[in-house]
Amino acid sequence: MNKLIVTGFALGLSLLLTGCGGSQYLQDGKIKSTLDQTNETDKYLVAVGLGASSKDATDSTQRKATSRNAAIVAAQYDLVGRVKGVKIEGGITIQKAMETDSKINALVNDSILGAEVSKTEWTADDGCVITMRLDKEKLAKQLNKKIE
User: What is the pTM (predicted TM-score) of this model?
Assistant: First the structure.
């Protein structure tokens, strides 16, 4: 009985750590050749960033830390492009609104910095894949605009 409980716990823990379907972006510790990215759901804008570790990093922890930082910056850059394409009230994009209102530009930057890292994955060579998401409702509230 104890063996069954331990086995069940180990299986549950492995599913929790790896996710039920495994990694969307990694296979056998390497980045897949094809990455299917859903950039938007009903609730979120989603962005992915890939980061490589610093050449100067001397151990795995340093390599993972530097690759994670690089992946976050890459995901934020991707997210900026996605946010700029969102249509707000009046049928204009956020990018167009940013061109005429500097406050919106600052609010978008704040929103990007506040985006949630929803998944962090490391490759076998300590590279990193970050999945980041931004809540559309939160974005609309920050901009004080309705998202269409």
Answer: 0.75
Task: Compute how many other C-beta atoms are within 10 angstroms of the C-beta atom of residue 64.
Answer: 19
Asked if residues 131 and 82 have their Cβ atoms less than 8 Å apart, the reply is: no
Can you tell me which residue has the tokens 């823990």?
A: 13
Confidence category of residue 143, pLDDT binned at 50, 70, 90 = very high
Q: Is 76 helix (H, G, I), strand (E, B) or coil?
A: helix
Alpha helices in the chain (DSSP H): 2-18, 60-84, 94-100, 102-113, 136-143
Q: Cβ distance 109 to 47 under 8 Å?
A: no
Residue 130: CA count within 13 A, CB half-sphere: 26
Residues whose CB falls within 8 Å of the CB of residue 75, separated by 6 or more in sequence, listed in order: 47, 48, 49, 115, 117, 130, 131, 132
Residue 103's CB is within 10 A of a number of other CB atoms, namely: 11
